[in-house]
């Protein structure tokens, strides 16, 4: 009798539970000033394993005009054990810019990719990745890259034109693998499938830089235009 009562109570609980909704983690606005490049980045850590993180940092121009495309600076720090890491700007693998990188001796290789299916992504020319003169390196424990991206925040996805609002938080997908890529010096190297994929929610405003173009220049990259940020239009 007690058992029956218990089951009935459990059934009642189950019936009254709200239907499962995806609950993205709240974006934590963490601003990090990178002394080496001078950029203020918004930082999100993604668990690669139970005991190691990939650090994703994005710097944006402050005061991007409404509706306009804009460049960003992406900085990623990855544990040396990883063969490659990737960021999916649209939050899933398919039909959005994928920024993939892998260690390559002193300076990692960064590669722009696109997937139309859950199969190896190919080169994506809609996003241009330009390494900064600083912030691309590796040591015994980690590798790090820092690139300007033109085209990572505006693209044509499965449901049409997408523009990531620089005043918002955004859910990204990320992925990584232990296995090394076959040709690490080539940005079009084939890459082995991921061991891990998951999601992060990234807060953009914490990485706003009022002197974005000047900082790009300090790091050897032209961004043109005023410091208001809309440095390159795609
Ligand atoms: C190297 C070749 C790759 C293969 C063969 C591959 C294959 C797959 C497959 C089969 C799934 C579905 C897994 C499941 O349903 O359990 C998946 C999911 C995913 N992959 Fe990949 N992948 C590759 C590269 C990448 C890259 C470079 C990224 C960059 C970030 C990525 C990001 C993701 C993400 C975020 C998901 C989960 C969301 C989704 O299903 O779209 N993948 N992948």
The best one-word shape is globular
Q: How many discrete domains?
A: 1
Name the CATH superfamily assignment: Cellobiose dehydrogenase, cytochrome domain
Estimated helix fraction? under 10%
**Bound small molecules, which ones?**
protoporphyrin IX containing FE
Based on secondary structure, the structural category is: mainly beta
Structure annotation, total helices: 2
Radius of gyration: 20 Å
Mean pLDDT: 88
CATH architecture label: Sandwich
Terminal Cα span: 70 Å
The overall strand count is: 16
Element-level helix/strand string: HEEEEEEEEEEEEEEEEH
Give the amount of beta strand, in percent.
35-45%
What summary fits the major beta sheet?
Answer: 8 strands, mixed
* pLDDT < 50 runs, ≥5 residues: 1-17, 224-234
CATH class: Mainly Beta
Q: Can you tell me the CATH topology?
A: Immunoglobulin-like
Protein name: CBD9-like protein
Pfam families: CDH-cyt
């Amino acid at each position: 009798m007690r058992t029956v009562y218990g089951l009935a109570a459990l059934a009642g609980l189950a019936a009254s539970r709200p239907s499962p909704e995806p609950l993205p983690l709240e974006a934590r606005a963490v601003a990090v000033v990178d002394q080496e490049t001078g950029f203020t980045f918004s930082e999100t850590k993604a668990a690669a394993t139970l005991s190691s993180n990939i650090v994703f940092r994005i710097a944006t121009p402050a005061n991007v005009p409404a509706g306009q495309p804009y460049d960003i600076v992406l900085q990623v720090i990855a544990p040396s054990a990883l063969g490659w890491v990737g960021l999916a700007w649209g939050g899933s693998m398919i039909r959005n810019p994928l920024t993939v990188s892998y260690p390559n001796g002193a300076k990692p290789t960064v590669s722009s990719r696109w997937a139309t299916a859950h199969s190896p992504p190919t080169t994506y020319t809609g996003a241009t990745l330009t390494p900064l003169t600083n912030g691309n390196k590796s040591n015994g424990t980690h590798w790090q890259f820092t690139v300007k991206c033109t085209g990572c925040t505006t693209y044509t996805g499965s449901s049409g034109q997408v523009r990531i609002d620089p005043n918002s938080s955004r859910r990204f997908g990320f992925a990584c693998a232990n296995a090394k890529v076959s040709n690490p010096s080539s940005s079009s190297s084939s890459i082995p499938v991921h061991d891990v994929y998951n999601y992060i929610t990234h807060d953009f405003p914490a990485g706003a830089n009022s002197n974005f173009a000047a900082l790009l220049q300090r790091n050897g990259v032209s961004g043109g235009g005023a410091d208001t940020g809309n440095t390159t239009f795609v």
